[in-house]
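HOLO CASE FILE
Compound: zinc ion
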Amino acid sequence: MDSEALKKYSALHPKPPGLTLQYGTAGFRTKAEQLDHVMFRMGLLAVLRSKAVVSTIGVMVTASHNPEEDNGVKLVDPLGEMLHPSWEEYATQLANAEEEELQKIIIDICQKAAVNQHKDALVFIGRDTRPSSEKLSQSVIDGISVLGGQYHDYGLVTTPQLHYMVCCQNTQGQYGKAMLEGYYEKLSKAFTELIKQSPSAGESQRHLKIDCANGIGALKLSEMEPYFPKEVIIHLFNDGTKEKLNHLCGADFVKVHQKPPRGLDMKPNERCCSFDGDADRIVYYYKDATGHFHLIDGDKIATLISIFLKELLAKVGETLHMAVVQTAYANGSSTRYLEETLKVPVHCVKTGVKHLHHKAQEFDVGVYFEANGHGTVLFSKAAETKIRQLAKEGKDDEKREAAKVLENMIDLINQTVGDAISDMLVIEAILALKGLTVQQWDAIYADLPNRLLKVQVADRRVIVTTDAERCVVTPPGLQEKIDALVKKYKLSRAFVRPSGTEDVVRIYAEADTQENTDALAHEVSLAVY
Ligand code: 16G
Ligand code: ZN
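Model generated. Tokens follow.
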């Protein structure tokens, strides 16, 4: 390490005095003007991580669904997963180190994590469309360069595209080519194959309206559109040319407010969807003939995908175990439908993609979705090999055809992380193959009314939870109060948890009617104060 160069460059990216930040569920996220030093230092950390695991590491500059003025950064591990939890602490230490401690902290990390300084380092960088992202990604590059790392800057990409590139690079192309064209070609080839087999193939056009949250999704969908089969027509709204990123639009806005985004003109029964600002989340919705808005969230997406995959797995007849992973926010009706009607095991884990992804890896086929629309499907290596083999050599026609559909699904799904573009194509293919309208999909089960509230408390860390955040351990007595409130209502459930991204405590409630749900959420919020 060239300590003079480190000092010199670090001084160009000074840490605001007194500022401390934490590598949270989604990396660092705050006002963009506070992040320059964090970006430089995450460039340093990416080099150390790359040397430690002797693989390419990703750095994504984005603040997802946050307001345009915010920004953030997260590291992507070799197979496209989130940074390993054991390194989150190093990220936090490095980000908060005072200028003069920086070198010592780097040496400490190298020792603790057995980083071999002599290894090469390669870092892939991507960024979203925020005005601050370009300059901040230059600061990441400064950090990488000062420690002698190599980098490839993909420029503007969706978060899941960067995860995909990192995975391709580290699997020597087995997952695909580490290039945007490679991503577009792989996904659209699988999609086209699937659409070809739908009962209405070639007969009618399929239209979909997409709210791109004024973010990166619009750019990347425009690039990909020429690859789509001609019967699929997408209409892009909120493409970022007129309005601000995530402002009154996008998947988070639609889910939280349970209403349509601004800037998308919706006719009755038209199928519409919203991406979030970095295109790793998606929700669908439509307006019925009476003008009533229907949200189809991550839980209903998981259900649709599970129904489809379960049928195919039954047809191929191998013992491949499928499970669904959800969080406490999953609507009770979705869990009941999956367990009781579809008879698929459901597991509940803590909020945050890394927890869902980790759990889903335990199964042959692991479907995971957060209610907010972030999710994907993971196929074990063994399941994938079996399916590809059956698709090639299966004796019986029905079995082989089912295996071929599954094989295309495997190629269409971005298994590294939830991906709005990939999820959208998966959903469109399933709806086409099953001949389902958006209303029929919505009618698979009826959501229980639900309410999400947040309250500001003096210190959200006093609330400690267990049982995948469904039960409060401290402060003592709070869980008993919640239990007593929940008992007053039918089909009710409620929980509280400290947010991992904001300084608030979140409250979730569901019950038989919206009125009861709102009353329950309100009563629980009073108990939290
Ligand atoms: C982050 C998570 C998201 C989770 C949300 C919860 C990732 C990539 N993102 O955005 O999955 O739903 O945090 O936020 O893990 P909260 O802790 O503030 O409720
Ligand atoms: Zn996002």
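CASE NOTES: The CA atoms of residues 11 and 99 lie 8 Å apart. Residues 298-316 form the longest helix (19 residues).
CLOSED: yes
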